[in-house]
Amino acid sequence: MSESRLMTSEVARLSILNALIPEVEKIAKAALDQRKMGLDVWKKSDGSIVTNVDLIVERAIRDVLSEIDPGGAIFGEEEGWSEHHPCDAAWVLDPIDGTRMFIEDRPGASISIGFWSSEGAIAGIVHDLTRGVTYASDAVSGTWLCPSPVPELGRDIHGIWDLKRGAQHDVEEWILSGLDVEHEPDGCVLEMASVAHGAIAGYVFAAAGWAPLPWDLAAGAALLRTSGGTLLWTDAPEGVITLQDQSISTLERYSTAGASGSATLIALGPHFVDELLNQ
């Protein structure tokens, strides 16, 4: 089986990412235009909502990737695995993260494209559909492509804590002590992008009966890895796990654990990782 060019060299990764960014932005504009013309909305077999734009966007991304990285496997929310079938290295797509926000024309929805290997997050592109901002990076070389750095690092903490239990680790205590419960968070991917970029200090998702899926995590994890941040599963059976350097199968195990109980997700900005995890 052929291999994605992202796995061959830093030059190849940066070339592909720089070619992909404007294509994603074109796809985003087309998605917003389609929303103005009207959406078809229905529920999938798992009860989640989907629109015709989710399908259109994923197909458009797949078509672009087939041209600029024909050897790369693809794993998408709407179409599943490409003909390469499940493997360790793949593009992981969420065509519209925050579909309900997108339907209601509220901030928080994004297009999310990550690349994952057996060694974890490799690269990520996230486009904010409301604000028109694109976040992109190569995690292997630590190269942040866009947007420009924030002038001042944020200290806010966003997210959801909907568990009956209290904090079990220092990092959970820190997150809960600063969590802005009045703030309505963006979609999971955008919140992780904001943490990685330094606009906010942290993000938590902790709810019973559901957890973010691999396509909700891949791009954000790559951005966090690039910036020196981290993405934690804090109540894994074996203890705290750093997700950004795990395999796709671990992301799937995390989501399964959330569906059957809870799987607490915490994103930490780079300026707090050393303070909280390496003390």
Would you summarize the structure shown here?
The protein is 37% helix and 26% strand. The protein has eight helices and 14 strands.
Task: Considering the chains and any ligands shown, give keywords for the structure.
five-stranded mixed sheet, 26% strand, alpha+beta
Tell me, rounded to a whole number, the average pLDDT: 93
Number of helices: 8
The dominant shape is: globular
Reported for the largest beta sheet, the result is:
7 strands, mixed
Query: What is the end-to-end distance?
Result: 44 Å
Q: Could you give the count of β-strands? A: 14
Strands of the widest sheet, in order across it, are 4-3-5-6-7-8-9
N-to-C order of helices and strands: HEEHEEEHEEEEEHHEHEEHEH
Helix content: 25-40%
Low-confidence parts: none
Portion in beta strands: 25-35%
Structural class: alpha+beta
How does this model look, in words?
This protein has helices at residues 10-37, 52-68, 99-103, 170-178, 188-197, 214-227, 248-260, 270-277, and strands at residues 41-43, 49-51, 73-76, 80-81, 90-97, 110-117, 120-128, 134-138, 143-146, 157-162, 202-207, 230-236, 239-242, 265-268. The protein is globular and about 45 Å long. The chain is built from 8 helices and 14 strands. α5 packs parallel to α6 (214-227). The strands form 3 sheets. The chain has a 7-stranded mixed beta sheet, with helices on both faces. Strands 10-11-14-12-13 form a 5-stranded mixed beta sheet, sandwiched between helices.
